[in-house]
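Narrative of activities, Objective 1.

The group set out to show that a structural description can be obtained from nothing but a protein's sequence at a throughput compatible with the screening campaign. Below is one input-output pair from the validation batch, recorded exactly as produced.
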Amino acid sequence: MKVLSDQLGFDVISLEYNLGADDRADPAEIPIKIAEAKALGADALYVGSSSFNLENRGSYTEAAISENLPVFSAYEQMVRDGLALMSVSNSYKNVGKLAATQAYEILFKAQSPGKLSVKALERFSVLINMQAAKQLSLYPPLSIISIAKIVR
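Output recorded for this entry:
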């Protein structure tokens, strides 16, 4: 994200949750961190790979909405089950199919895992949560709406 921010001319604010004695983050810290991001000048939030934020998507996206911050995510569940504005993601079904083809090469064609090429899915789904868009008074352009799945 930092490399991309340099190329496209935006700032990245990176915040980490504090871990408790059990080495776990406390969900009560979510609104505090989101308010901190807003105070530092954040215009939007991006949730990449974070099982904690995904697990706490309701609290996370509600706290973001309360700070008038749109959430963009790599997880479609944050749009479907939370109030993230938009996701660009792959369905678990398609990820599973890709993993199955790689496993087939290893198990049935005796390919060495280290010699298999790295594969990536080429098609992605764009989801937009219109309830979040309304609450934020931030409506996606028609060019995005025309390719997106609309939720709520």
